[in-house]
Amino acid sequence: MLRRIILAAAAGVGPASRSSHSTEAAHLTEIKRRNLPRGFAFSLVLVALVAATIVPDPVAAAVLEPVGHEQLVQRAQLIFEGVVTAVQYRLSDVGTPDHVALPHTFVTFTVKQTFKGKSATGSSITLRFQGGPDGHGSALIIPGVPLFDVGERSILFVRGNGTDLCPLVGWEQGRFRVIGDAIYTDDGQELWVTPHGAWARGPQHALDEVVTHNLGGTPLTFEVSPSPTSETLPPGAQRLHAVGVRSLVSGLVSRLHTSEQLARLPPVASAAIQDPFYVISPRPSAAPALPAASGRASLAEEQNAVEEPPVSK
For residue 51, what are the CA distances in angstroms to 3, 103, 201, 292? Predict the structure, then answer.
């Protein structure tokens, strides 16, 4: 999804329009990350928490390799429906010169229903996401990593909590919003099912839950552009609602896993905000070799000579 981010100052400044602030509010760094899914474009957006208009697209847009509904279920270590009860932030620790202090967000959920696996802490769990305010007036936003607010309800497909940059299968693809009896993707698209049982993304809605967020006390408003992942729905497709998704996820878990496999799944630990954790500072990649014939690297090779991203430990 391509989104234009509009930030309002915590001191009561209303939604901002394009102005002289826009040239001083954003610092954009594009980096590639090893071991990400094929077809993934990774970028970081560092924004100042002041009244400004930030336009990260198209450079900062995350292009995620599509993850099917069966892959979501198979890859997840924990699948649950829960409500956000707390959102906290802190920087990663610095223990050696190789470490860098980066903002992280700790989101705590009350678990309402579990479909696969279990939380080590029972009826609650805290997930750690890279990104968030740095405590000095700026914030790190990573396209493709969901934002959460207290009171929101979601169905989440969890993997790599406490180790991965985003502890959801397929990043934002591993989060479905539950709003009343309706269900939406992270960016507000309807969820449909085809006559062959495949899940499809339908029309997109500028929901309040998608458009507005509170980031460390600073209200954010997002202008939502049409999602490039919208699909042409085939004849016979039906829109899914929350009760239908719950039933389908439960059925997929039973079909794709034996009871013995499910019993052997280890509990997923909560990310404790007080525990130390580290992010390795990025190092420059080696320059691409020059072709012998022309003596000059191709444009594609030059564009691939980028930094490796921070890796959480």
Answer: 17, 20, 33, 51
Q: Which residues of the chain have pLDDT under 50?
A: 1-43, 50-61, 294-309
d(CA 246, CA 252): 10
- Tally of domains within the chain: 1
Tens of pLDDT, residue by residue over 11-23, are: 222 222 222 222 2
> Is 286 inside a domain boundary?
no
Q: Residue 279: count other Cβ atoms within 10 Å of its Cβ.
A: 22
Place of tokens 């993707």: 185
Q: Diameter of the chain by CA atoms? A: 63
Is 290 within the bounds of a domain?
no
Q: What residues make up the domain containing 256?
A: 3-279
CA distances from 153 to 120, 183, 271 (A): 20, 10, 19
Within the chain, residue ranges assigned H as helices are 69-75, 208-211, 242-256, 259-263, 299-303
